[in-house]
Design goal:
The protein is an alpha+beta fold. It folds into 2 domains: 26 residues; 143 residues, Mago nashi protein (2-Layer Sandwich). It is built from 3 helices and 7 strands, in the order H-E-E-E-E-E-H-E-E-H. Strands 1, 2, 3, 4, 5, 6 and 7 form a 7-stranded antiparallel beta sheet that branches. The protein is elongated.
């Protein structure tokens, strides 16, 4: 017969393994380990609501609404909105450390800084659409990407761009409320 002390000693590694594995399996977020405290990240996110205006022979694209979200490395945020050509007062805020680390990890872990800048042509029959731009500076390396909403172009928008866009949209919504 096996001594109880041997069963207890044998069970300890199994219990520790389960305690480590459960949070890793149930957590769907990107790990914070990708973001180093020494990383310097600055983000400039711009979103335009555009409308194509026809003057008979010529066409012009004008912005109905423009939103600019600037996030500094220390978590300071500046949010600017211009609607119908009139700027609204800037909103300044501060991003909590957890959200800032999550954003840094998302950018680093997914290789967002390495995405090539490519052209996304707008379809001819689209008159109202959203166009976004993000400029990320990570440790002195700059990447700038412009893209329209998916239903305004025939090209495929990579999911990582949409993921970063949704995170930045959430931050903009929280600040503007």
């Amino acid at each position: 017969m096996v001594k109880p002390i041997i069963l207890v000693i044998a069970a300890i590694p199994a219990i520790v393994a389960i305690l480590i594995a459960i949070p890793l399996i149930t957590k769907s977020d990107i790990p914070y380990s990708a973001a180093n405290p020494i990383d310097v990240v600055e983000i400039e996110y711009t979103k335009h609501q555009l409308k194509k205006i026809s003057f008979g022979v010529t066409e012009r694209i004008g912005a109905q609404k423009t939103e600019i979200l600037l996030i500094q490395n220390n978590g300071e945020i500046k949010y600017t909105v211009t609607e119908d050509g009139y700027p609204k007062p800037d909103i300044k805020s501060h991003l909590d450390d957890q959200t800032l680390r999550k954003l840094k990890a998302l950018i680093k872990e997914t290789g967002f800084i390495s995405i090539p800048s490519e052209s996304f042509p707008i379809r001819d029959n689209v008159t109202d659409f959203q166009k976004s731009n993000i400029k990320i500076t990570l440790n002195g390396r700059v990447n700038q990407i412009n893209w329209p909403e998916q239903n305004a172009t025939d090209k495929f928008i990579p999911p990582i761009i949409s993921m970063v866009e949704s995170q930045l949209d959430k931050i903009a919504e929280q600040i503007s409320e």
